[in-house]
Amino acid sequence: MSKIKNAKVIATCPGRNFVTLKIETEDGITGLGDATLNGRELAVVSYLNDHVAPCLIGRDAHQIEDIWQYLYRGAYWRRGPVTMSAIAAVDMALWDIKAKVAQLPLYQLLGGACRTGVMVYGHANGETIEDTIDEALKYKGLGYKAIRLQSGVPGLAATYGVSRDKMFYEPAADDLPKETAWSTPKYLRHAPKLFEAAREKLGWDVHLLHDVHHRLTPIEAARLGKDLEQFRLFWMEDAVPADNQEGFRLIRQHTTTPLAVGEVFNSIWDCKTLIQEQLIDYIRATVVHAGGITHLRRIANLADLYNVRTGCHGATDLSPVSMAAALHFGLSISNFGVQEYMRHTAETDAVFPHAYTFADGAMHPGEQAGLGVDIDEKLAAKYPYKRAYLPVARLEDGSMHNW
Ligand code: EZ4
Ligand code: CO
Fold this sequence. Notes:
binds cobalt (II) ion; binds (2S,3R,4R)-2,3,4,5-tetrahydroxy-N-oxo-pentanamide
């Protein structure tokens, strides 16, 4: 028994917003959980402070499964990104505490290492195909074995995922959402040209990935998948929004390009049909948005039965606490596929000192007890929360998209 004494929520903006939960036990052990929900951060802060924290005080920090079920079933209102990010933060912090008490790095409690490291993919993006490939060559030079390629589309002023900042680009910006224009025909004509040039210049020994950011309909996604088949992508990500899981049947009938989806999923119910019907190859649900390590393990175990591997989301809006949790998780599960890795800025790394490292295209969580991440609260306090949003896309005629 190790009673929870305190649960504190810390919002900080060292270049971008992060929300962190710090749980402390009566024996003075602390654990960290990431609760960042990009563009909706303060909703999770309130959910934790006003509704969850009071229920945690006095509970046994070691009863991770019971606390998970208590917060999920006990709330009556299930699922949703705000609820599941809050539960995730509690779950991560409790695993951190348990592993610290056991004096083991978390991956040891999860079953031990199944592999020597966690293969990660980096983001190469550029205004033009040439710029994108130049960026990809830099990643290859750094040892990356897998690279995501995104390029600007001729005729469109801005493309999501393509930014002027390279290594550290940030998906959210501005005090109010920026609006961008999108054209499916222009994009569908352009994307295969990027991968044709990429294979010519980068060769076939590197995994190439692409993110469609939910912008197509199933039949358009089927067309793109077919056009990209010859370039042997590692995956085509978020080709369509997956609110309608059955929509993937249509894409799957037409293409052998591997499919990845799920960075916005928050529960096993969002991917149950996709997994059981083998409509996807990679599930991108994350520790922070899908209910923590406890729930993500359940998703990965279901996926394992159907040859679906993991490919967890790992953009800059997932804090170093999430990154560490993803690495302990990825190192220890049988059906790990790949882990996304967008590097945090030096400012962010200073607020969250961590034990994880990158070498030869793979990452390792390190051997520190627990998650191996800390938060420098004094430094965090110097960066107050700043409202920021993801951009909103409209079609060229000004209407909201119909996908
Ligand atoms: O849109 O992290 O695969 N990565 C992505 C990211 C996500 C943002 C959302 O907050 O698609 O850029
Ligand atoms: Co994505």
